[in-house]
UniProtKB/TrEMBL annotation, chain A:
Ranges where the ABC transmembrane type-1 domain occurs: 67-262
Protein family (similarity comment): Belongs to the binding-protein-dependent transport system permease family. CysTW subfamily.
Compartments reported by the entry: Cell membrane
Protein name in UniProt: Putrescine ABC transporter permease PotI
Keyword terms, alphabetized: Cell membrane, Membrane, Transmembrane, Transmembrane helix, Transport
Organism this protein belongs to: Marinobacterium zhoushanense
TrEMBL record, chain B:
Name of this protein: Putrescine ABC transporter permease
Organism: Marinobacterium zhoushanense
Family: Belongs to the binding-protein-dependent transport system permease family. CysTW subfamily.
Record PANTHER family: INNER MEMBRANE ABC TRANSPORTER PERMEASE PROTEIN YDCU-RELATED-RELATED, PUTRESCINE TRANSPORT SYSTEM PERMEASE PROTEIN POTH
Top-rank taxon: Bacteria
Matches recorded under Pfam families: BPD_transp_1
UniProt domain ABC transmembrane type-1: residue ranges: 86-292
Coiled coil: none
Stretches that traverse the bilayer: 21-50, 85-109, 121-142, 172-192, 271-292
Cellular compartments annotated: Cell membrane
Signal peptide positions on this chain: none
UniProt-listed InterPro entries: MetI-like, MetI-like_sf
Keyword Cell membrane: yes
Membrane association type: Multi-pass membrane protein
Highest classification ranks of the organism: Bacteria, Pseudomonadati, Pseudomonadota, Gammaproteobacteria, Oceanospirillales
């Protein structure tokens, strides 16, 4: 009896911490969202409900331009890092131990924790050197940011995809190879459909990381390409502004909708896969 | 028949080389090589030119001269500004990692003990903030912590304080910002570790008469060591070089090395000193990075 009571107490302590922690994570963002509808120009004084800051936001051409730059960079970076990250994940999960695999695994997981300022600085110095030696890139801008983002995002894609590759049943791949498929065919026709949810998740993660990055983009970008975080940062440095509150609300809304949708789709496809497997098992059973 | 049997054996090594080679070459060029260049620039001296440093190699009268300038590193040692910025960064990173661990561990523990259905929802709730813009999440605290901010207004209204507390632009604000920003990165690996923990081990411990707190210390905690290391490194290492949080929430006293590096680079245009700062930061972080890497590569490679 006593044992049970003390266990209940400990469980409730961690439960309380869980809910307190979630409140800590969500309340500041909730307040930000509420204050974006504040009519008052003074951000800390409530002046009634209004949506006027959203109106001024849509007229701000600097912000709109930065949004389109950021979206373009994020799209191409996410796509490139999906290719690089999936290849690296395949090496990690499927290849036998070798010197090449070891150095690749060293390089792919390092950007996960490397401070942004170091990645940004080192890439900028590389681009300056390359321009000096081979005459490219002549200007820093979207291309250089794309290279920088693809590099650090591919590490995240590799983590997400490799965990799915490890869970995957390898016998279907082997069956495809036994039945005469080339490795490339077996990868695209068998492996890709199975790991598709993790490919989507990895792409979305890379997309959001690229959209979010301030430090690396600031180092590697040039005057022609100002990303959204760079605009937000230079404005936020001067203090809280109602327009940024409105922008922040839109970002939070966009991110949570996408994340919820991706989560829902991933769960549905996982469920369907399990169902199909169960059906296959049932059909196999009598034979 | 012959071509059929030859085809896979011929294609396989080819495909393997490409799969390994493409990411390998990309990372070699855009991740490993840049570090060597940083090292090189850190050994050169500053110049008023574009780019603003002098070349290490000079070739005059058929003599190749290599001049290595250690002055940048000596400057870092000499000037107390840099030394205290490094020490302060390490201190802030250490205590915020500890804070994240103390808050995150019970959270991850409670998540791992929930029903599978609750777990997927809780996992989404933890991950969602880390997908939302980091900059925006730091910015949210600016409105809360300032002298006329929500927290001060609320405390004044309650009558708990007479004059606003100074929270913005202090180390306190930096700690809040870092714990807030990095908490999901602590909870996720801890959860991934705790959820795999075999409940029968705990049952065995309690069947053998172990009290639950004792079980926690002797069974759960040691078994979750991997998650604790991964989570702590995911918080500690980026925090040492953190720029956005000390810049927006910190004051003139909250010196952190990421901020100093940024200023040297963008404001003073002193690329060699900025490079030297980065090199020293990397040296300081090499043990934590190695620890993290060992855990990560074990995670990514097939263990079964």
């Amino acid at each position: 009896m006593k044992k049970l009571a003390s266990r209940g107490l400990k469980l409730s302590f961690s439960k309380v911490m869980l809910w307190a922690g979630l409140a800590f994570l969500y309340v500041p963002m909730l307040i930000l969202v509420i204050y974006s509808f504040n009519a008052s120009k003074l951000v800390t004084v409530w002046g009634g409900w209004s949506t006027k800051w959203y109106g001024t936001l849509l007229e701000n051409e600097q912000i709109l331009g930065a949004v389109s730059t950021s979206l373009k960079i994020a799209f191409f970076s996410a796509s490139m890092s999906l290719i690089l990250g999936t290849m690296a994940a395949f090496v990690m999960a499927r290849f036998r131990h070798s010197w090449g695999k070891m150095t690749l695994s060293n390089m792919i997981s390092a950007p996960l924790v490397m401070p942004d300022v170091i990645i940004g600085l080192s890439l900028l110095l590389l681009f300056v050197h390359m321009a000096d030696l081979i005459g490219w890139p002549t200007d820093r801008g979207m291309t250089t940011v794309w290279i920088a983002h693809s590099t650090f995002c591919s590490a995240y894609v590799a983590v997400v995809v490799s965990s799915r590759l490890r869970e995957m049943d390898r016998s279907i791949e082997e069956a495809a190879l036994d039945l005469g498929a080339t490795p490339l065919q077996s990868f695209f026709l068998v492996t890709v459909p199975v790991i598709a949810p993790s490919l989507i998740a990895g792409w979305l993660l890379a997309f959001s990381l690229s959209l979010d990055d301030l430090v690396i983009a600031s180092f590697t970008s040039g005057p022609g390409a100002t990303t959204l975080p760079m605009v937000v940062f230079s404005s936020v440095r001067l203090g809280v502004s109602p327009q940024i509150n409105a922008l922040a609300t839109l970002i939070i809304f966009a991110v949570s909708t996408t994340a919820l949708l991706a989560w829902y789709l991933a769960r549905r496809s996982e469920k369907r896969q399990k169902q199909q497997m169960r059906q296959a098992d049932l059909q196999m059973a009598p034979a | 028949m012959k071509t059929l049997s030859l085809k896979p054996t011929l294609k396989l090594p080819n495909g393997r080389i490409w799969t390994l080679g493409v990411p390998y070459f990309w990372l070699l060029l855009f991740f490993a090589l840049p570090f060597l260049i940083v090292l090189k620039i850190s050994l050169s001296s500053m110049a008023i030119a574009i780019p603003p440093y002098e070349s290490l190699f000079s070739f005059t009268d058929e003599v190749m001269e290599i001049s290595l300038n250690l002055g940048n590193f000596l400057l870092l040692l000499d000037d107390s500004l840099y030394v205290s910025a490094y020490l302060n960064s390490l201190q802030v990173a250490f205590f915020s990692t500890l804070g994240c661990l103390l808050i995150g561990y019970p959270m991850a523990y409670a998540m791992a003990r929930s029903t599978p259905r609750q777990q997927t929802i809780l996992l989404l709730l933890i991950m969602l903030p880390s997908w939302t813009s980091f900059l925006i999440r730091v910015y949210a605290w600016m409105g809360l912590l300032s002298d006329t901010g929500l927290i001060n207004n609320f405390l004044l209204w309650l009558g708990l304080i007479d004059s606003p507390l100074r929270m913005m632009n202090t180390n306190f604000a930096v700690y809040i910002g870092i714990i807030y920003g990095y908490l999901p990165f602590m909870v996720l690996p801890l959860y991934a570790n705790l959820v795999k923990l075999d409940p029968s081990l705990l049952e065995a411990a309690s069947d053998l008469g172990s009290r639950s707190l004792h079980t926690f210390w002797t069974v759960t905690l040691p078994l979750s060591k991997g998650g604790i290391i991964a989570g702590s490194m995911l918080v500690f290492i980026p925090t040492v070089g953190e720029f956005v949080i000390p810049e927006l929430l910190g004051g003139p006293n909250s010196l952190m090395i990421g901020k100093i590096l940024w200023q040297e680079f963008f404001n003073n245009r002193d690329w060699p000193v900025a490079s030297a700062l980065a090199i020293v930061m990397l040296v300081l972080l090499i043990i934590p990075i190695a620890l993290f890497h060992r855990y990560q590569s074990r995670q990514m490679e097939a263990e079964s």
